[in-house]
Specification:
The structure is a homotetramer. By secondary structure, chain A is an alpha/beta fold. In chain A, 44% of the residues lie in helices and 9% in strands. The radius of gyration of chain A is 18 Å and the shape is globular. Chains A, B, C, D: Pathway: Carbohydrate acid metabolism; 2-dehydro-3-deoxy-D-gluconate degradation; D-glyceraldehyde 3-phosphate and pyruvate from 2-dehydro-3-deoxy-D-gluconate: step 2/2.
Chain lengths: 266, 266, 266, 266
């Protein structure tokens, strides 16, 4: 989920409601507020809580909430809050800013997992923060039963296959790059956490077609998903996702710096 | 300044006081709390304010406060708070996590500079966050008189020279890498913002010797600063800075994950 | 194909013959001498010609010859030589050493394609030399009918999909990374150019099973190919490929620096 | 030295003579044919020998010859040839194309140094080929007295300082980046191997002024060298160096692909 903004750069809850209804309509399995496409680092802790609360109160879909922060105190606070309001799962990437080795990343997750029982997806997105190695994921998974899977947005299929080798009935591996979903399903991925759902149903159709009609799924990937991803990829991430959503829904949306309006045609 | 921690990973104000007194004793010109060595992203907004306030109340040295956050709301809040309590200047790097182009970085600074009058140092540290180009610094400097300089920790001397070309009476360029201070002074740098000051006076002596005794300054660089930086550089940043400080002062200090204790000898 | 070496680091033609017979036995479609696994840059022009000639004279399999060099004169000489001795196709990566933009790469291929009629595969391997963009491949393909396809060893599936979008009856797209062959076939790849063939038939079985028994192919990938690639990947490339081949065939093989013997168990 | 080319992309010896006379006129200490600016990888072994021979026969200046190749046989041949014709020293970077660890690089140099007595400069240029660590340089220096120094073109001052720590009466450390020469001299560099000498005497004047008039040297760096380097840096390397030389001397010069003409104004 993007985090819709008004002309002043504040969260726009009317627009958020439109987004929630759209996502329910195209039949996603989970809502994922405050992820990277939701530009979570651009908001205060209070804004993040308010947004999670609004999504919870306005949808019956299961929710996985982005709880990322380099500060373990903030992560703990967001996890407890999310659990209290009935959110089903949390999604957490390694800390950002300071470059970290795997030992540091392990200490971070261990501390958080030791003080929270909430189901957690580990989020690997090395473009934006420190990479978590499959080996570290494996160790955390073996020590904490609340670690329920991984969302891998690395776009590195070799690394993704290593994550997939950890899959079992209690451990899911999700692809975070829309244009790699078909390939990932072929290799055994549990599903996708995909940003184009904010304004397009192609990726959901691909996912649902896949089981019965592999050829059709591949066709959707090639004809719908890849061209859309290429188009979005020409702009500073994730500004085009917002503009696309605003334009499609005739919303007078805005941007909070460092975000800015880009000229994508829909 | 590191942010000294106790055995539970909370800020240790007794230790902070020891640190302040040491820095005053070796005669630094400014205190710089909540920078990268101070692991500012590992703290909550409240912890950051409390720490800034403590430093302000316990030293008469001028202070430049790290106010970094990807959230402009948090930056604005930290700047207003800092100004209110009498802190002299703020230090701000570009937003982290999402990879940004220069246009995005410009929008971010512009928004913040438009709503704050506090003197600001721009902080370039591309190892940890998006790089700010000298061209963007130049544009911001020409539009906002509150932009008083840049702290460059890139370790890229060619880029540093480009920053130096912006120097004038109202614009200072500081070197953020201790082992490059001598070279930077030769090229015209205004000074350094140097992490080894937390437990060693070599870099301050180098700076003061430089004007009168260039050879002595070079000797300190080669014999004291570079070997110390190499030793510290063997460990996950900035854990060794903390351990060094704890050991030197016989403090039973601690770590907040992702930080952890490393075995440096002092 | 590796380029088998004797204890003095010279090409070992007896061992080469053993290799040719093995490759024929496991039923590869083409032989590919003097590629990256064949460490072509470690040989003189004369050694390269001699090796190509030996392979040509000792096998009736179609051959694609690595003709890479940053010097267009050397490439032209190798292509003419290869064509004269009846080699079916050439494989050529962009020039290495000096970092090049796409315009430079285009000029290089254009010059070579204008003076040679031999069928050519473009070789994308950005780990080792300048990357060639799908757009540049597309331009070369549209101008020169002798451009018959691309070998992509980038391990970047997103880029590979872009290459695949150029596929047609006269343009083949090959995967150069063994552990990505299954995935690539799913996406429509024409086949693979795979280094583990030097001592293992898994990847060939995978390829042949794929058309009739996709599940079996996936099983081979997971049980045979990926574990083998991981094992090989622990050593300085491509030393372990050589040692594996030597040990398997009880050959007293050697290395030419910068190659050296590694301790892989087979 | 660039390698001047005629309109057909062949070496232009008349132009080479003009270049030699110019370099003698501005009083460089050494000629350095077949380095990176000389695009040595774009030539055949015979062309490289012919060029070295021509330079030797047409100048009494000491010469250091670029003998780089990933093939140790080619390096050995070039070194023996150079020694035979009276060239004073060889310059050699680590092998390119295949990514190598330090052990591989060590094996390569060791093999070459064991079979040649010629004085050698190790050439570090990680932008174009595998990086050689100061530690590896140190080991080679301690084992082979023919290792007389290092040319470092990395533009990494921290690494350069590590190379400088190896300096002694028998081991020189040269800066390969013109705009970093002043800084490097300050730190104790032996001198520079600088590409702008092909058409400009600024860097030579800087070097000669440095000993007596440090301020003048710094002025030349800021007013002449840095602006020239910035201008050249806007184009695909090293095309602008060639065009500049051609234009300045009214030579109808050419390019061998992947080189091409760029529109620099002189």
């Amino acid at each position: 989920m993007i985090t819709p903004l008004d002309a002043h750069g504040n969260i726009d809850y009317n627009a958020t409601n439109i987004l929630i209804k759209y996502l329910e309509g195209i039949n996603v399995d989970y809502l994922f507020p405050m992820g990277s496409t939701g530009v979570f680092p651009y908001f205060t802790l209070k804004e993040r809580k308010d947004f999670l609360k609004f999504v919870r109160e306005n949808s019956k879909k299961p929710i996985m909430a982005g709880v990322g922060s380099s500060s373990i105190n903030e992560v703990n606070e967001l996890m407890k809050f999310s659990m209290d309001i009935g959110i089903e799962a949390a999604v957490l990437m390694p800390p950002y800013y300071i470059k970290l080795n795997q030992e540091a990343i392990y200490h971070y997750y261990k501390e958080i997992l030791s003080s929270n029982d909430m189901d957690l997806l580990i989020y690997n997105i090395p473009q934006f923060t420190n990479k978590i190695d499959p080996e570290t994921v494996k160790n955390l998974k073996s020590e904490f039963s609340s670690v329920k899977g991984v969302k891998d947005s690395s776009a590195d299929i070799r690394g993704f296959m290593e994550m997939l080798s950890l899959s079992d009935d209690d451990f899911a591996v999700f692809q975070g790059q829309d244009d790699l979903l078909f390939t990932s399903l072929e290799l055994g991925a549990s599903g996708g956490v995909c940003g184009t759902t904010n304004f397009s149903d192609g990726i959901v159709r691909l996912y649902h077609e896949y089981k019965n009609n592999r050829e059709m799924a591949l066709k959707i990937e090639k004809n719908d998903v890849i061209p859309l991803m290429k188009k979005l990829g020409k702009y500073q991430f994730p500004n085009a996702y917002y503009e696309y959503f605003y334009k499609k829904n005739n919303i007078n949306g805005g941007y909070r710096p460092p975000m800015y309006r880009v000229g994508i045609e829909i």
